[in-house]
Write a structure and sequence with these properties.
CATH superfamily of the largest domain: HUPs
Bound molecules: zinc ion
CATH class of the largest domain: Alpha Beta
Number of helices: 12
Order of helices and strands: EEHEHEHEHHHEHHEHHHEEH
Radius of gyration: 20 Å
Largest sheet: 5 strands, parallel
CATH topology of the largest domain: Rossmann fold
Strand order of the largest sheet: 5-4-3-6-7
Amino acid sequence: MKCTLCGEQTVYVRQYDKLAFCKRHFNEQMRKRVQKTITRYKMLGRNDRIAIGVSGGKDSIALLNIMSKIEKDFPESELVAIIIDEGIANYRDEGLHFAKKHAERLDIEYHIFSFEKDFGYNLDYIIKTLGERGKDREYGACSYCGILRRKILNKAAKEVNADILLTGHNLEDEAETILLNIIRGDIKRLVRLDPKPRKIHHSLVPRAKPFRMTPQAEIVMYCYLNDLEYQEIPCPYAVEAYRGDVRDFIFKTQEKQPMLSFNIVRGLDNLLKMVSTIPSSSKMQDCSKCGEAAASNLCKSCWLKDKISTIQNL
Ligand SMILES: [Zn+2]
Ligand SMILES: [Zn+2]
Protein backbone atom coordinates (compact mmCIF):
# COMPACT_ATOMS: atom_id res chain seq x y z
CA MET A 1 0.00 0.00 0.00
CA LYS A 2 1.21 3.48 -0.86
CA CYS A 3 1.03 6.80 1.02
CA THR A 4 -2.09 8.67 -0.12
CA LEU A 5 -0.06 11.90 -0.30
CA CYS A 6 3.26 10.93 -1.90
CA GLY A 7 3.21 7.29 -3.02
CA GLU A 8 5.99 6.19 -0.63
CA GLN A 9 5.63 3.06 1.47
CA THR A 10 2.81 3.24 4.02
CA VAL A 11 3.47 2.89 7.74
CA TYR A 12 -0.01 3.71 9.04
CA VAL A 13 -3.59 3.63 7.81
CA ARG A 14 -5.94 5.94 9.67
CA GLN A 15 -8.89 3.85 10.85
CA TYR A 16 -11.59 6.46 10.55
CA ASP A 17 -10.98 7.68 6.99
CA LYS A 18 -8.68 4.96 5.58
CA LEU A 19 -6.02 7.48 4.53
CA ALA A 20 -2.57 5.87 4.27
CA PHE A 21 0.61 7.65 5.38
CA CYS A 22 4.34 7.18 4.97
CA LYS A 23 6.45 8.01 8.05
CA ARG A 24 7.08 11.63 7.00
CA HIS A 25 3.41 12.33 6.27
CA PHE A 26 2.24 10.48 9.38
CA ASN A 27 4.43 12.74 11.54
CA GLU A 28 3.24 15.75 9.61
CA GLN A 29 -0.46 14.94 10.06
CA MET A 30 0.12 14.44 13.81
CA ARG A 31 1.74 17.85 14.13
CA LYS A 32 -0.85 19.55 11.92
CA ARG A 33 -3.77 18.17 13.89
CA VAL A 34 -2.26 19.41 17.16
CA GLN A 35 -1.68 22.82 15.58
CA LYS A 36 -5.24 22.89 14.29
CA THR A 37 -6.61 21.91 17.71
CA ILE A 38 -4.56 24.67 19.38
CA THR A 39 -5.77 27.26 16.86
CA ARG A 40 -9.39 26.17 16.81
CA TYR A 41 -9.81 26.40 20.58
CA LYS A 42 -7.41 29.35 21.03
CA MET A 43 -5.31 27.30 23.44
CA LEU A 44 -2.11 29.35 23.23
CA GLY A 45 -1.00 32.96 22.94
CA ARG A 46 2.16 33.97 21.06
CA ASN A 47 4.14 34.93 24.17
CA ASP A 48 2.90 32.23 26.48
CA ARG A 49 5.08 30.43 28.93
CA ILE A 50 3.70 26.95 28.34
CA ALA A 51 3.86 24.27 31.03
CA ILE A 52 3.40 20.62 30.04
CA GLY A 53 2.59 17.97 32.62
CA VAL A 54 4.86 15.03 31.80
CA SER A 55 4.29 11.65 33.46
CA GLY A 56 6.61 9.60 31.27
CA GLY A 57 3.73 7.73 29.62
CA LYS A 58 3.15 7.70 25.85
CA ASP A 59 0.74 10.65 25.73
CA SER A 60 2.85 13.15 27.60
CA ILE A 61 6.10 12.05 25.92
CA ALA A 62 4.53 12.41 22.45
CA LEU A 63 3.04 15.78 23.40
CA LEU A 64 6.36 17.08 24.70
CA ASN A 65 8.04 16.09 21.43
CA ILE A 66 5.38 17.56 19.15
CA MET A 67 5.10 20.77 21.20
CA SER A 68 8.87 21.26 21.07
CA LYS A 69 8.57 21.30 17.26
CA ILE A 70 5.53 23.57 17.14
CA GLU A 71 6.95 25.97 19.72
CA LYS A 72 10.04 26.64 17.55
CA ASP A 73 7.82 28.72 15.26
CA PHE A 74 7.02 31.04 18.18
CA PRO A 75 10.30 32.53 19.42
CA GLU A 76 8.60 34.58 22.13
CA SER A 77 7.01 31.57 23.79
CA GLU A 78 8.69 29.16 26.22
CA LEU A 79 8.17 25.53 27.14
CA VAL A 80 8.63 24.08 30.59
CA ALA A 81 8.00 20.49 31.66
CA ILE A 82 6.41 19.69 35.01
CA ILE A 83 7.06 16.22 36.36
CA ILE A 84 5.10 14.92 39.34
CA ASP A 85 6.39 12.14 41.59
CA GLU A 86 3.34 10.57 43.21
CA GLY A 87 5.47 8.18 45.23
CA ILE A 88 4.52 4.71 43.99
CA ALA A 89 7.12 2.07 44.84
CA ASN A 90 8.57 -0.07 42.03
CA TYR A 91 6.74 1.96 39.41
CA ARG A 92 7.15 5.71 39.42
CA ASP A 93 10.94 5.83 39.05
CA GLU A 94 10.82 4.47 35.52
CA GLY A 95 8.30 7.10 34.38
CA LEU A 96 10.35 9.85 36.00
CA HIS A 97 13.43 8.59 34.22
CA PHE A 98 11.78 8.77 30.78
CA ALA A 99 10.22 12.17 31.50
CA LYS A 100 13.60 13.66 32.52
CA LYS A 101 15.42 11.99 29.66
CA HIS A 102 13.12 13.45 26.99
CA ALA A 103 13.11 16.93 28.52
CA GLU A 104 16.92 16.89 28.61
CA ARG A 105 17.22 15.59 25.06
CA LEU A 106 14.86 18.30 23.78
CA ASP A 107 16.61 20.92 25.91
CA ILE A 108 13.41 21.81 27.73
CA GLU A 109 13.53 23.26 31.24
CA TYR A 110 11.94 20.85 33.73
CA HIS A 111 10.89 20.85 37.36
CA ILE A 112 10.02 17.90 39.59
CA PHE A 113 7.31 18.19 42.24
CA SER A 114 6.23 15.42 44.57
CA PHE A 115 3.24 14.35 46.67
CA GLU A 116 5.63 13.82 49.56
CA LYS A 117 7.05 17.35 49.48
CA ASP A 118 3.97 19.27 48.33
CA PHE A 119 1.23 17.39 50.20
CA GLY A 120 3.18 15.80 53.03
CA TYR A 121 2.67 12.14 52.14
CA ASN A 122 3.31 9.95 49.11
CA LEU A 123 0.54 7.96 47.41
CA ASP A 124 1.60 4.60 48.85
CA TYR A 125 1.35 6.00 52.38
CA ILE A 126 -2.01 7.66 51.66
CA ILE A 127 -3.55 4.46 50.29
CA LYS A 128 -2.11 2.35 53.10
CA THR A 129 -3.46 4.79 55.68
CA LEU A 130 -6.93 4.99 54.12
CA GLY A 131 -7.16 1.21 54.14
CA GLU A 132 -8.70 -1.43 51.95
CA ARG A 133 -11.02 -0.38 49.19
CA GLY A 134 -14.68 -1.17 49.76
CA LYS A 135 -14.03 -1.73 53.46
CA ASP A 136 -12.32 1.32 54.93
CA ARG A 137 -11.65 3.26 51.78
CA GLU A 138 -14.46 4.71 49.68
CA TYR A 139 -12.84 5.30 46.29
CA GLY A 140 -10.21 3.68 44.07
CA ALA A 141 -6.60 4.82 44.44
CA CYS A 142 -6.81 6.74 41.15
CA SER A 143 -9.40 9.12 42.61
CA TYR A 144 -7.11 10.20 45.46
CA CYS A 145 -4.12 10.33 43.14
CA GLY A 146 -6.11 12.45 40.66
CA ILE A 147 -7.14 14.95 43.36
CA LEU A 148 -3.54 15.53 44.40
CA ARG A 149 -2.07 15.43 40.91
CA ARG A 150 -4.47 18.16 39.74
CA LYS A 151 -3.72 20.27 42.79
CA ILE A 152 0.07 19.89 42.60
CA LEU A 153 0.18 20.36 38.81
CA ASN A 154 -1.61 23.65 39.31
CA LYS A 155 0.68 24.68 42.15
CA ALA A 156 3.67 23.79 39.98
CA ALA A 157 2.31 25.72 36.99
CA LYS A 158 1.96 28.80 39.22
CA GLU A 159 5.43 28.38 40.66
CA VAL A 160 7.05 28.23 37.24
CA ASN A 161 4.99 31.26 36.13
CA ALA A 162 3.16 29.40 33.37
CA ASP A 163 0.35 31.10 31.47
CA ILE A 164 -1.15 27.81 30.46
CA LEU A 165 -0.88 24.16 31.48
CA LEU A 166 -1.05 21.48 28.80
CA THR A 167 -1.83 17.85 29.53
CA GLY A 168 -1.54 14.77 27.31
CA HIS A 169 -5.20 13.66 27.44
CA ASN A 170 -6.06 12.08 24.10
CA LEU A 171 -9.27 11.65 22.10
CA GLU A 172 -10.45 8.53 23.92
CA ASP A 173 -9.59 10.01 27.34
CA GLU A 174 -11.74 13.01 26.49
CA ALA A 175 -14.62 10.88 25.15
CA GLU A 176 -14.43 8.78 28.30
CA THR A 177 -14.54 11.78 30.62
CA ILE A 178 -17.52 13.18 28.72
CA LEU A 179 -19.41 9.88 28.96
CA LEU A 180 -18.56 9.47 32.65
CA ASN A 181 -19.93 12.90 33.45
CA ILE A 182 -23.12 12.13 31.54
CA ILE A 183 -23.48 8.75 33.25
CA ARG A 184 -23.05 10.39 36.66
CA GLY A 185 -25.42 13.19 35.68
CA ASP A 186 -22.69 15.69 36.56
CA ILE A 187 -23.55 18.47 34.13
CA LYS A 188 -21.46 21.08 35.97
CA ARG A 189 -18.35 19.06 35.28
CA LEU A 190 -19.46 18.30 31.74
CA VAL A 191 -19.71 22.01 30.97
CA ARG A 192 -16.28 22.60 32.54
CA LEU A 193 -14.79 20.37 29.82
CA ASP A 194 -14.96 23.37 27.50
CA PRO A 195 -11.81 22.96 25.37
CA LYS A 196 -11.09 26.70 25.34
CA PRO A 197 -8.80 27.41 28.26
CA ARG A 198 -10.38 29.81 30.67
CA LYS A 199 -9.81 31.14 34.12
CA ILE A 200 -12.57 29.41 36.08
CA HIS A 201 -11.04 30.43 39.42
CA HIS A 202 -8.45 33.03 40.45
CA SER A 203 -6.15 30.31 41.81
CA LEU A 204 -6.26 28.05 38.75
CA VAL A 205 -3.86 28.21 35.82
CA PRO A 206 -5.94 27.65 32.62
CA ARG A 207 -5.56 24.18 31.12
CA ALA A 208 -5.75 22.77 27.62
CA LYS A 209 -5.52 19.39 25.92
CA PRO A 210 -3.87 19.66 22.49
CA PHE A 211 -4.37 15.88 21.93
CA ARG A 212 -8.14 15.95 22.45
CA MET A 213 -8.61 15.20 18.74
CA THR A 214 -5.76 12.67 18.48
CA PRO A 215 -6.63 8.95 18.81
CA GLN A 216 -4.57 6.88 21.22
CA ALA A 217 -3.51 4.44 18.50
CA GLU A 218 -1.79 7.27 16.60
CA ILE A 219 0.08 8.41 19.71
CA VAL A 220 1.40 4.88 20.22
CA MET A 221 2.42 4.75 16.55
CA TYR A 222 4.09 8.18 16.78
CA CYS A 223 6.23 7.02 19.71
CA TYR A 224 7.09 3.79 17.94
CA LEU A 225 8.03 5.39 14.61
CA ASN A 226 10.17 8.06 16.27
CA ASP A 227 11.87 5.76 18.80
CA LEU A 228 10.42 7.62 21.74
CA GLU A 229 10.80 5.51 24.85
CA TYR A 230 8.02 5.72 27.42
CA GLN A 231 6.76 3.84 30.46
CA GLU A 232 4.62 0.95 29.28
CA ILE A 233 3.93 -1.02 32.43
CA PRO A 234 0.61 -0.02 34.00
CA CYS A 235 0.43 1.60 37.41
CA PRO A 236 0.03 -1.03 40.17
CA TYR A 237 -3.11 0.79 41.31
CA ALA A 238 -4.71 0.67 37.83
CA VAL A 239 -6.60 -2.52 38.75
CA GLU A 240 -8.76 -0.32 40.97
CA ALA A 241 -9.59 2.09 38.16
CA TYR A 242 -13.18 3.18 38.24
CA ARG A 243 -13.13 4.07 34.59
CA GLY A 244 -12.64 0.54 33.28
CA ASP A 245 -16.14 -0.21 32.03
CA VAL A 246 -16.61 2.98 30.03
CA ARG A 247 -13.14 2.67 28.59
CA ASP A 248 -13.82 -0.91 27.47
CA PHE A 249 -17.09 0.21 25.89
CA ILE A 250 -15.33 2.93 23.90
CA PHE A 251 -12.55 0.74 22.52
CA LYS A 252 -14.89 -2.15 21.77
CA THR A 253 -17.51 -0.04 19.99
CA GLN A 254 -14.78 1.84 18.16
CA GLU A 255 -13.76 -1.33 16.35
CA LYS A 256 -17.04 -1.16 14.44
CA GLN A 257 -17.58 2.60 14.60
CA PRO A 258 -14.18 4.29 14.19
CA MET A 259 -15.75 7.76 14.47
CA LEU A 260 -17.24 7.07 17.92
CA SER A 261 -14.85 9.15 20.04
CA PHE A 262 -14.74 11.98 17.49
CA ASN A 263 -18.54 12.06 17.54
CA ILE A 264 -18.69 12.19 21.34
CA VAL A 265 -16.10 14.99 21.55
CA ARG A 266 -17.66 16.99 18.70
CA GLY A 267 -21.05 16.44 20.29
CA LEU A 268 -19.79 18.19 23.42
CA ASP A 269 -18.41 21.06 21.31
CA ASN A 270 -21.80 21.48 19.65
CA LEU A 271 -23.57 21.38 22.98
CA LEU A 272 -21.25 24.06 24.38
CA LYS A 273 -21.95 26.27 21.38
CA MET A 274 -25.64 26.13 22.26
CA VAL A 275 -24.90 27.01 25.88
CA SER A 276 -23.09 30.21 24.96
CA THR A 277 -22.38 31.30 28.52
CA ILE A 278 -21.24 28.98 31.24
CA PRO A 279 -23.78 29.24 34.04
CA SER A 280 -22.40 30.78 37.23
CA SER A 281 -23.48 27.66 39.12
CA SER A 282 -20.61 25.79 37.46
CA LYS A 283 -18.02 28.26 38.82
CA MET A 284 -15.66 27.24 41.60
CA GLN A 285 -15.67 28.57 45.16
CA ASP A 286 -12.74 29.42 47.46
CA CYS A 287 -11.66 26.59 49.77
CA SER A 288 -12.27 27.71 53.36
CA LYS A 289 -8.93 26.25 54.40
CA CYS A 290 -6.40 26.95 51.62
CA GLY A 291 -8.29 29.52 49.53
CA GLU A 292 -7.82 27.61 46.30
CA ALA A 293 -10.51 26.39 43.93
CA ALA A 294 -13.12 24.15 45.47
CA ALA A 295 -16.40 22.65 44.28
CA SER A 296 -17.79 23.05 47.79
CA ASN A 297 -16.68 24.69 51.04
CA LEU A 298 -13.53 22.55 51.27
CA CYS A 299 -11.27 21.55 48.35
CA LYS A 300 -10.69 17.84 47.83
CA SER A 301 -7.04 18.08 48.80
CA CYS A 302 -7.80 19.71 52.17
CA TRP A 303 -10.60 17.18 52.66
CA LEU A 304 -8.11 14.36 52.09
CA LYS A 305 -5.57 15.90 54.46
CA ASP A 306 -8.22 16.13 57.19
CA LYS A 307 -9.22 12.53 56.58
CA ILE A 308 -5.66 11.29 56.92
CA SER A 309 -4.98 13.22 60.12
CA THR A 310 -8.24 11.93 61.61
CA ILE A 311 -7.09 8.35 60.96
CA GLN A 312 -3.61 9.10 62.32
CA ASN A 313 -5.14 10.42 65.54
CA LEU A 314 -7.34 7.39 66.10
ZN1 LIG B 1 3.93 10.31 2.13
ZN1 LIG C 1 -8.15 23.59 50.24
